Amino acid sequence: MNLDVYGDTLCALVSAAALASSGNTVRLHLADAQMADGLRTGNCPYREPGLAAMIAEQVQAKRLDFAGITDLPGERSAVVWLALSPDLLHEAHGIIQQLPLNAGRDWLVVNQSTFPVGSTEALQASLQARCAGGQNTCAAVSLPDLLTEGDAIAGFMRADRWLLGTDVDWARNLVSELLRPFNRRRNAIMLMQPREAEFTKLAINGMLATRLSYMNDMANLADNLNVDIDRVRQGMGADKRIGDAYLYPGCGFGGQAFSRDVMSLASTLQHSGMQPQLLDQVLQINERQKEVLFRKLWERYGTHLRGRKVAMWGVAFKPTSTRIDNAPSLKLLEALWAQGVEVHVHDPRALPALAEWAGERDDLVLHDDPYEAADGADALMLVTEWKAYWSPDLARLKAVMNTPVLLDGRNVWEPAFIKECGFEYYGIGRR
C-alpha cells in the first residue's frame, strides 16, 4: 500500500518507519529539508533506541522516502497519515484542502496527532467538503498517539492497544489491514467513536498523572509520619484493584506530551463548563513536587545556601530522552540560582538542550563526567533516574564531594546502604 505520513514528531517518524517495514511504500513529509537529509544518512533528531537504524534500513530498501510538508501525496497514495505537532491543526486542514480529486480516488485520513477533542470530526467535515460533488469516497479516523518515548518502536510494532475512532466500515477495515502486521498476537484494536478515542488518550494520561501526584503527596506525608513510602508503595501495589504501575514517588513529572495532555484535559473540562478541580490539584501538586529536593536542601543547610556548590545528576524529563520539556530539573535549577547556588550538571544526553535553555551563566557548569560534576559539591541531587546513576562508585563519590549529602529525587538508592557508606541520605518519603 502507498501512504503519505505528515509530521516531524517522534510519532510521525516511528509510524513511517514501522509502516514501511511491513512492506508499504511510505513518503514522510517534513517541514525541514535538513532533517530529511539527516535521516537519509542515519542522523535522527530523536535519540530513540533503534529508530535511526530502522529509518536507514527502510530508505535503503526504497520503501521510505521524504517530501516537503506542503507537497501533495504521491500519485498512487490514498492514505494520508497525520502525526503533526499539537499546534498544527490549521495545517492539517490545509493538507486536506490540497488533496487531489482524481476520478475514483478515495481518501483515508488517519489522525494520529494530539489535537483537541473533536478535531477528527472537524477534519472529516473538511474532507467531506473537499470531496463533495465528486466520485471520491473519503473518511477521517482517529488513531491517537499512545507511544512512550524510549520504547516507541515496540509501542507501535507490539502495541498493547490501539484506540481506533471511526464509524465508517471501510475505513475501519483499511486501518485494520494497515495495522495487521503489528496486531497478530491478539486483536489489540479497540473500536470507538473519533471523539471517544481522542478523549480516552487524554484521560489515560490524566489518570497516570493523578496516580503520580497522589503518591508524591503520600511520600511527603510519609516524611512527616516517619514512614518509609517504599513499603507503603509495595503494599498498595499488591492490591489487585490498584496494581503497581505509576506508584513510584519522585520529584515531579515533566515531558512535553504528558504535561500537555493533562493540561489539555483540564482545559477541555473547563471549556465544557465544568471545573477541573481534581486535575488542577494534580498539576499544583506536581509543580510543588518539583521543588521538593530544594526544600530538603534548604532545611539541611539551615537556609544558608548562597555560595554553595551543588551537583545535579540528570536533567532530562525522563531517562533515555534528550529533552527537558517541563522537566523538574528546570524549576529546581531556578530555585537554586535564586539562592546564589552554583550548579554543576551531568546528564548522558540532555546537556545540549539544557545549554540552549539556560544560555551562558556563571552559576551553571556542564560536565561530561558525573564525578567531575560532584567534585567539591556540598550536595548531590539525583533528578533523572538514568541507569548509569543506580550503582555509583560511592567511595569515589565521597572522596570528591565537599560534604557527603545525597538527595535522591527518584528513590533509586537504598537508604540504609547509602548511610552505611558514610553519606547523609534524603529521599522522597524514604527512611
UniProtKB/TrEMBL annotation:
Answer whether the UniProt record assigns the keyword Oxidoreductase to this protein.
yes
Q: Which SUPFAM superfamilies match?
A: 6-phosphogluconate dehydrogenase C-terminal domain-like, NAD(P)-binding Rossmann-fold domains, UDP-glucose/GDP-mannose dehydrogenase C-terminal domain
Q: Which Gene3D superfamilies match?
A: Cytochrome c1, transmembrane anchor, C-terminal, NAD(P)-binding Rossmann-like Domain
The UniProt keyword set, sorted, is:
NAD, Oxidoreductase
Q: Which domain of life is it from?
A: Bacteria
Q: Where is the UDP-glucose/GDP-mannose dehydrogenase C-terminal domain?
A: 311-415
Asked whether the UniProt record includes Aminoacyl-tRNA synthetase among its keywords, one would answer no
* Pathway named in the protein's UniProt entry: Nucleotide-sugar biosynthesis; UDP-alpha-D-glucuronate biosynthesis; UDP-alpha-D-glucuronate from UDP-alpha-D-glucose: step 1/1
Q: What EC number(s) is this enzyme filed under?
A: 1.1.1.22
Q: Which SMART domains match?
A: UDPG_MGDP_dh_C
| Catalysed reactions, as listed in the record | UDP-alpha-D-glucose + 2 NAD(+) + H2O = UDP-alpha-D-glucuronate + 2 NADH + 3 H(+)
Q: What name appears for this protein in its UniProt entry?
A: UDP-glucose 6-dehydrogenase
Please state the gene responsible for encoding this protein.
udg
